[in-house]
Structure formats: structure tokens, C-alpha cells
Amino acid sequence: MTEHQRSSTSRSSWSRRGLLAGVGAGLSLAAAGCLGDESASITPVSLDGERACDECGMIIEDHPGPVGQVHFEDDEPEGGRPGQFCSSTCTYTYRFDAADAGRSPLATFLTDYSLVEQEVFEEGDDTMFSSHVESDAFSRTTDLTVVARSEVVGAMGPELIPFGEESDVDAFVEAYGGEPMPAEEVERSTLEAL
């Protein structure tokens, strides 16, 4: 498959499934609320403007690839807002460090490339996905599969690319390679292996 074909396939392979994903997310949240899960009411925020990554300091919306946010139990000591990040790797690194320091993450969100119309572009030898910082572009890590060690890189280089739909994971792996895994199973060793 040529780069042009791959790029064209990528753009057409993932159509917007916002309505179905939104209904599914709403049902999940409703079920969690009925079960007494205090984190069920937490929703993602937009990461637009001059927001800097809490892990590396880069301006989030200025860089390609998935972005993330972590909401903490201890009243989000990042100034009354969730932790905000320019990449999946920064999101996980910060969350691991915070947990090691005794903080309790209540909800972690990453860009869900099944919900957005992403652009695929080349920068030098790198293949990248567009960044999406709007609040409705995020899904909880409990609902995502990430693909590690693909040809697609993000703001910090090798990246975990998240999807909410298994068919999108399969199409992405076919086009760009990589190894899928549940987003909740990512560990420090996963990041080190990137």
C-alpha cells in the first residue's frame, strides 16, 4: 500500500460515530451512577488555548497526536482543574508519578480517535495524527484500546494511539502496524518499551 493510499484509507476508515459513542458513554455513565461510582459524574474539559502540559510544559493544542487529562480525588491540586497533557505518554507518566506520591486518580481521559475526524499527515519521516482538544473528543481509558509501537508518532515521539471502537483499532493496525492493548493495562514498562 502506498503512503497516499494509506493516508486516504485512514481518512475514510474512521467515520464519525459520535452519536453511537455518545449514547454508549451516556448509558455507561448512567449505569455507573446507579452503582454509586463517585467518578461517574466527572466529564472531560476542553484543553484549548494556551494550556501547558503538566508533565513537559509544551502548549497542548500546538502539537499533533492524542492528548489527555487526569481528574484526581484530592480536589485536583493543579489549581482547581484536572491534570492536562500534550500526549498519551505524558498523561500516563504523570498519573503513575502522582499515584506513587499517594494521589488517587478518579478518571483519566484520552483523545478517542473513533470520535473524531482526524487528519493524517507526514512531517519528515514521521506519520502523525491531528490533535483534538475539544471536550467531546475524549473518552475514559476504561473504554479505550491503545495501540503501541505503530508507525504513528505524537507530540513526544513514539505514542499510544487510543480508540473506542475495535473496528477502528483493527483498521489502524492494518494500516500502521502496532500492538493493541486495553488502555487500563498500560504500565510504566509499556511506556519504556515504546
Task: Give me the secondary-structure topology.
Blueprint: H1 3-13, H2 18-34, E1 68-72, E2 83-85, H3 88-100, E3 105-111, E4 120-123, E5 126-129, E6 138-140, E7 145-148, E8 152-154, E9 157-158, E10 161-163, H4 166-176, E11 179-182, H5 188-192
Please tell me about this protein's structure.
The chain is of the alpha+beta class. The protein has one domain (3-29, 52-192). The chain is built from five helices and eleven strands, in the order ααββαββββββββαβα. It has helices at 3-13, 18-34, 88-100, 166-176, 188-192; strands at residues 68-72, 83-85, 105-111, 120-123, 126-129, 138-140, 145-148, 152-154, 157-158, 161-163, 179-182. The strands form three sheets. It has a four-stranded antiparallel sheet with strand order 2-1-3-6, covered by helices on one side. Strand 8 (152-154) and strand 9 form a beta hairpin. Helix 1 (3-13) runs antiparallel to helix 4 (166-176). The longest helix has 17 residues, at 18-34. Residues 1-36 have low confidence and may be disordered.
